[in-house]
Amino acid sequence: MSEHDNSGPPTQRLVAEQIAAAALELGFARVGFAPVTPFDEAASRLRTWLASGYHGELSYLEDGEARADPRALLPEAKTLVAVALSYAEPPKPVPLRADREGPALAGSIARYARGEDYHLVMKEKLAALAERCASIIGRPLATRACVDTAPLLEHEVARRAGIGFSAKSTLTIVPGLGSYVVLGELLLDLELPASEPLKAGCGGCRACLDACPTGAFVSAHVLDARRCIAYLTIENAGPIPRELRARIGTRVFGCDVCQEVCPFNASSAPRPRAPELLPRTPLAVVDLVALLELGAAGYRKLVRRSALRRVTRDTLARNAAVALGNTRDARAVAPLERALGTHRSALVRAHAAWALGALGELAASARPRLERAAEADLDADVREEARLALGSS
Ligand code: B12
Ligand code: SF4
Ligand code: SF4
Questions:
Q1: Label partner for 229 (CA 20 to 30 A): which of 14, 116, 208, 318?
Q2: pLDDT value at 56 more than 60
Q3: Could you tell me the distance, in angstroms and rounded to a whole number, from the CA of residue 172 to the centre of ligand 1?
Q4: CA atoms within 13 A on the CB side of 123
């Protein structure tokens, strides 16, 4: 029976098939259906995690009960349509423009943020899917699209809807696609048959747990967000804990280490990627000096339709300062000295002082500047960082 058939209402299964086909047509790599019922087990795990303080300053996660009950998002909803969009990069990296060399001091941006902002892409595609659902069913539908920021445990939705499994890295792995996917959901006031959760899992592997540069995993399936580089470089707007700065390396926005080592991401088989999420040329590599010295107009251009808009210009400059300190490259000294001497943000000046200290002997010429900052900077944290840097250089 087609959607135009007049012989009677389409069965739930047929409608589900039509919605799944529409989702794939719109560019989603996977789709599944879960009933809208409270997530009791996941809620209790979330409570234990929050009680341990692993969420740090992510206070929005404390909305516990609502986050584990999708009915709170749309009371009339009966089905959660779970979708995954793939941002796995093609095996060959996107080349730089032929007329441009790469920056001398390069930093890295996590893969999910190299293309268009996935929140925007996902929302647009979910809105299109909602329209397709209404046309398949032949009546207006109450819907709500969610991606990332809605109070919803998205890993649990994906698991229930059978599109992936909860891995030891805490990420959702979609067999055949790996973990380089972003998740989204569409709540519908329409009853549909539920998909079967997958039986797959990590088996005996623990590669991600051992590879994390900051030791952020407390155990399999449990992450101390406060140590995760994604938290430190994106969510945390204040000073980065000193003992973790060297471990961040040259990552200025997020981290992919636990995914890079995952065998589920190793396959080079063709994957249904969302073209919008492929790296934009200017974001395939970042120039750390340009990021440290980014002006207001440059910032606006850089973050336009990018997930980078989540952080401020000063946060990016702070991250660039730390990354420059981790380059072990003498060319980082002059820009860091400039930042210590003139940057309008005390946070950036403080991290620039740390970075000069981290460069050790390479930054010997910066001692007079550090001494001036230790004596005369208007901000107590900058004076303290400069004193510490003088002690370590
Ligand atoms: C807060 C948050 C973060 C925090 C905390 C991450 C965390 N692990 O909790 C920080 C800032 C650190 C972070 C980092 C990243 N994030 Co994030 N983040 C979120 C957010 C908003 C909430 C996650 C959450 O609820 N955490 C609370 C804890 C308790 O939940 P949990 O770890 O998921 O635990 C559940 C399961 O692990 C399971 N579980 C626990 N124990 C056990 C044991 C067993 C045996 C089993 C089976 C299950 C199980 O139950 C728990 C409750 O459901 C989600 C979006 C959303 N609304 O869900 C995106 C989300 C998880 N992030 C995402 C991404 C892409 C990332 C990064 C990869 C970004 C990057 N490259 O830098 C990193 C990855 C770090 C990592 N290893 O998780 C994607 C993940 C996509 C995917 N394939 O899984 C999401 C889903 C956003 C999206 N819409 O796509 N993130
Ligand atoms: S994203 Fe990086 S820092 Fe965070 S858990 Fe994974 S490997 Fe560790
Ligand atoms: S690296 Fe191994 S343990 Fe970690 S998520 Fe991948 S399969 Fe699971």
A1: 116
A2: yes
A3: 8
A4: 10
Span 276-289, average pLDDT: 80
Q: Which protein residue has the closest C-alpha to ligand 3 atom 7?
A: 202
User: What pTM does this model have?
Assistant: 0.94
The dihedral built from the CA positions of residue 112, 165, 79 and 10, taken in this order, carries a sign that is: positive
Q: State the pLDDT confidence band at 187, using cuts at 50, 70 and 90.
A: very high
d(CA 105, CA 344): 23
Contacts for 217-224: CB closer than 8 Å, 24+ residues apart: 217/168, 217/169, 218/52, 218/54, 220/168, 221/166, 221/168, 221/170, 222/49, 222/54, 222/170, 223/54, 223/169, 223/170, 224/54
Ligand (nearest to CA of 213)? 2
Closest CA to 256 of 315, 324, 169, 317: 169
Question: Beta strand pairing status for 79-86 and 181-188?
Answer: antiparallel
Asked whether the beta carbons of 151 and 207 are under 8 A apart, the reply is no
Q: Which residues pair with 85 in a beta bridge?
A: 182
Predicted pLDDT at 68: 82
Q: Which residue has the tokens 């000193």?
A: 242
Can you tell me the mean pLDDT for 10-26? 92
- Active site annotation includes 69: no
Query: Cβ(299)–Cβ(345) under 8 Å?
Result: no
DSSP state of 285: S
Residue nearest to atom 4 of ligand 3 (CA): 208
Q: Which residue among 109, 155, 179 has the greatest number of ligand 1 atoms within 8 angstroms of its CB, and so is best to mutate?
A: 155
Give the three-state DSSP class for 262: coil
Instruction: Give the tens place of pLDDT for each residue, 78-97.
Output: 999 999 999 987 766 555 44
Identify the pLDDT of residue 8: 42
